[in-house]
User: Fold this.
Amino acid sequence: MSDVPMVGDPVLAVAVRAARRAASVIVDAGRDLKRLPTFSKEHGEIAAAAGDEAKAAIVATIGAAFPEHAILGTDGDGSAEAKNPSPYKWIVDPIDGATNFAHGYPHYAVSVALAHGSDITHAAVLDPVHDELFTAVHGKGAQLNGAPIRVSACTRLEEALVGTVIPARGGGRTTAYLPIMTAVMRRCAGLRRAGACSLDLAYLAAGRLDGYFVTSLKAGDVAAGALLVKEAGGRVGDFAGGLEFLRTHEVIAAAPGLFTPLREAIAAARA
Assistant:
């Protein structure tokens, strides 16, 4: 698929600009973090400030281009959506993988997506460590640094490399998650937990992972990655096989031939 239509998309250009401005903040803060003890007070303050500044950069960039749009993921109570009833909603995560970032573990990303109603139409996931920009526009495919990407051709769970997210401590979902993790781990070729959902889904879109599942998430973690996977030829759904994953907070994403085997393995573990 040609990358020309995507390059000329003005909405995607804003998403990419917002992601790059946030990444610039993150990269600068990362240099400062390297000079400080990991558990020092100043280290924690710099990491927290980086998230706030990256968020402000995204909001300023999107707000300048589309002042009438709502921006979600910038507060914890959903008040942005309540204040702005626009059908256009940006779903963002300034540092997906913030714990990784704070520890210098090189797997985190800026995630920016636009939804129109219930449909995600544009996505940008930027890995500032490796300078990898994953983009997608509904109906126009997915790309990595301007080159088209596709999900893997894997069809057997026994041959699949599967990503996951371990629920956060104290979130109450660990008990339900562990039997699923055990069941999938026993059947797949390998299980990976890297700590940044949007980037993991981007890896799935690029064929680096074959499948992915998560039992607890925020919309900002998965919105952009979900469009990347779909536009790269993969499938995304909830644990029931439907499309309510942003509401249920449960996601399965996989290469098309692996989606059903992975969903069935998870369903069996929950029975």
User: Anything to note?
Assistant: The first helix runs from residue 4 to 7. The chain has two domains: 4-148, 157-270. The chain is about 45% helix and 20% strand. Residues 4-148 form a domain with the Fructose-1,6-Bisphosphatase; Chain A, domain 1 fold (CATH 3.30.540.10).
